[in-house]
Amino acid sequence: MIKIVNLHSWLGNQKVLDGVNLEVKKGEVLALIGKSGVGKSVLLKHIVGLMRGKSGEIYVGGVNVAKTRGRALERLRERFGFLFQGGALFDSYTVYDNVAFPLREKTRMSEEEIREKVLFELEQVGLRGMEHKYPAELSGGMKKRAALARCMVTEPEIMFFDEPTTGLDPLTANSINMLIKKTYQRTRFTGIIVSHEIPEVFNLVHKVAMLWEGKIIFYGTPHEIFKCDDERVRGFIEAAMESCRVENTPARFEDGG
Questions:
Q1: Angle formed by the axes of helices 111-124 and 95-106, to 10°?
Q2: Do residues 174 and 200 make contact, with C-beta atoms less than 8 angstroms apart?
Q3: Which run of H or of E encompasses 241?
Q4: What share of the chain is helix, strand, coil (3-state, %, to 5)?
Q5: Which helix (H) or strand (E) is 192 found in, with range?
Q6: Taking the CB of residue 20, how many other CB atoms lie within 10 A of it?
Q7: What are the pLDDT digits (tens) for 188-241?
Q8: Residue partners of 220: CB distance under 8 A and separation at least 6
Q9: Residue 65, phi then psi, degrees to nearest 5
Q10: 76 and 63 in contact (C-beta within 8 Å)?
Q11: Cβ–Cβ contacts within 10 Å for residue 217, how many?
């Protein structure tokens, strides 16, 4: 479904992607991991055509994204769903209108048909009854749920998740991860999840790719990454897991003298 061939990209004078090669099969979900600032989100933007590489090819469903423009690119993007890190909800719209927005903009569905689909998706993410609220009235986890409902209401073939649990407490993050898993089981989308939540994200994916200094240095299953003998991969995984343990350890207060 997604094939990247020798992709090179620069941001100003800095080379970000240095010959990336990657494949994601239809119905497969891949975790894209790596240090902060290594270019994971940049790679997603290239796949959806928001950025153009200096050289290389990107194919989505057989379509060469790098050579697609105008209406053809818009039609390709209609197959995508993108859950942004902050949710990217419209502050002046209610939850209902946020979820209905892509249907009103991109389809000729009647308001009755739109209402049926919107309420169905809100039910799936546990927000039925909250459709009248505005984003400012929602918790961080509820915003992510509303954003996911907006993504899924158009029934996308391909989903992109950019740090979907960043900034959430462990319990809320786990609920979002389980919701992503439930959504996959229902729709069987092809997906890429950019995440630092290791090892939690490994429970959601079929494959893992690690980006390091502009190149993919590991590609395999979650089981295989723990057996990888590349010191860069092992060091990153061990550090990420230790950081996760520290962040999730409750603070202990010492008795004052």
A1: 130
A2: yes
A3: helix 231-247
A4: 40, 25, 35
A5: strand 190-194
A6: 24
A7: 999 999 998 899 999 999 999 999 999 999 999 999 999 999 999 999 999 988
A8: 207, 208, 228
A9: -60, -40
A10: yes
A11: 16
